């Protein structure tokens, strides 16, 4: 016991001596200073350094994923998919980012009720870098595989919880994305990491992606740099508004 006490005193003394060797200013740095960013006045609105991708007026920051101009309908500040006409893809390329997307899923039409189920009901998706999908899918009375439901990283992992409200109401995704990094010869150096917040509730917490998110087969990585992101057309009219992004 005596030996332990002496050792403890010795270590504490060494620690105190070590601390005294350092002047406080030797562990401080004063530049470069972080840029000033003016936050939004209300939740969900873009801060001053955000790139506005859709403000309710036009899709001038987008192309159709089939080439040319988007054919989505713009009305009442919303961009609505035209089923069968294709998705939209940003003209600008992105890497690490903070992405805000608001979406609204339609109520099933009674005469089509038998056809509206599972992956056919209110389906779209936020596809980061053209290959990593955060699923958008109607979860209201609509059973499907959980790694393909709303908030899933498609075919990889289910959301932690389901904070969806109801059809016909606006839902809010805030996505924090760390892109994968590749080295010489396309070797993966660090995988993609994603945090997803739906309606203010964290549903993906620093999830490490296993690769891309294919409909069939297993995920894998292939080397790439900065790429656009897209919003998917999956055969149903889904509305979007207030889309903005920040480069990180």
Question: What is shown here, in short?
Answer:
This protein has one helix at residues 2-20; strands spanning 51-54, 62-64, 73-75, 78-80, 88-90, 97-104, 124-128, 132-136, 170-178, 181-182, 188-190, 193-198, 201-208, 230-231, 239-247.
Q: Which properties best describe this structure?
A:
248 residues; mainly beta; eight-stranded antiparallel beta sheet; five-stranded antiparallel beta sheet; 1 helix
Portion of residues in helices? under 10%
Low-confidence stretches: none
Helix tally equals 1
The tally of beta strands, per DSSP, is 15
What is the alpha-carbon Rg in Å? 23 Å
Q: How does the helix and strand content classify structurally?
A: mainly beta
Strand content: 25-35%
Report on the biggest sheet.
8 strands, antiparallel
Please provide the ordered H/E string of secondary-structure elements: HEEEEEEEEEEEEEEE
Shape: globular
Mean pLDDT: 90
């Amino acid at each position: 016991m005596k030996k332990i006490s002496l050792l403890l005193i010795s270590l504490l003394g060494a620690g105190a001596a070590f601390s005294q060797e350092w002047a406080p200013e030797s562990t401080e740095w004063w530049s470069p200073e972080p840029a000033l960013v003016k936050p939004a006045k209300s939740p969900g609105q873009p801060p001053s350094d955000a790139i506005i991708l859709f403000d309710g007026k036009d899709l001038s920051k987008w192309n159709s994923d089939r080439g040319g101009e988007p054919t989505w309908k713009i009305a009442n500040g919303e961009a609505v998919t035209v089923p069968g006409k294709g998705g939209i893809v940003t003209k600008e390329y992105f890497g690490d980012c903070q992405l805000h997307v608001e979406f609204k899923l339609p109520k099933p039409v009674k005469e089509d009720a038998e056809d509206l189920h599972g992956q056919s009901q209110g389906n779209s998706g936020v596809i980061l870098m053209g290959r990593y999908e955060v699923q958008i899918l109607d979860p209201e009375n609509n059973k499907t595989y959980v790694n393909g439901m709303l908030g899933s990283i498609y075919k990889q992992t289910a959301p932690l919880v389901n904070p969806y409200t109801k059809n016909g109401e606006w839902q809010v995704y805030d996505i924090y994305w760390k892109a994968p990094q590749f080295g010489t010869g396309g070797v993966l150096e660090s995988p993609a990491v994603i945090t997803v917040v739906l309606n203010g509730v964290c549903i993906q917490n620093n999830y490490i992606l296993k690769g891309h998110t294919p409909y069939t087969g297993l995920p894998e990585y292939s080397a790439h740099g900065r790429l656009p992101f897209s919003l998917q057309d999956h055969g149903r009219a889904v509305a979007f508004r207030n889309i903005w992004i920040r480069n990180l």
